[in-house]
Amino acid sequence: MDKKTEEFYSRLREELNNTSVWPSEYLYKFIVPTDKKKIEEVENAFDNLGAVIQTTQSKTGKYTSLSVNVTMENPEQVIEKYIEVSDIEGIISL
Predict the structure, then answer these.
(1) Which domain of life is it from (predicted)?
(2) Cβ distance 72 to 11 under 8 Å?
């Protein structure tokens, strides 16, 4: 992980600690190229966590947005999921 990414996650961890009481619901937003395999990879990352996942395809159908609402135990668990899905080719985390 590069220095810029580490700094981003450090700031995110600090902000999550200061703004939420844990465990807490967290809303992840991702955009992936519309590809069944990529969408399934994101869904599988949240399997068995009781996540509510909504998908919306772009007007052109080229991209799919995923909103993942899930209860997380702490900021570290939130960041671990971001890191886990970052390996999916073409994913954008919002």
Answers:
(1) Bacteria
(2) no
**pLDDT tens digits, 69-88:** 999 999 999 999 999 999 99
What is the pTM assigned to this prediction? 0.91
Q: Specify the number of domains making up the chain.
A: 1
Query: Which tokens in the block code for residue 69?
Result: 């609402």
- Residue 54, domain extent: 3-93
* Residue whose structure tokens are 């990529």: 38
Residues 39 and 55: their CA atoms lie apart, in Å, by 9
Strand-strand pairing, 63-72 and 24-33:
antiparallel
Per residue in 17-63, pLDDT (tens digit) is 999 999 999 999 999 999 999 999 999 999 999 999 999 999 999 99
Return d(Cα 94, Cα 65) in angstroms, integer: 10
Distance CA 66, CA 62 (A): 14
Tokens of 17: 């600690």
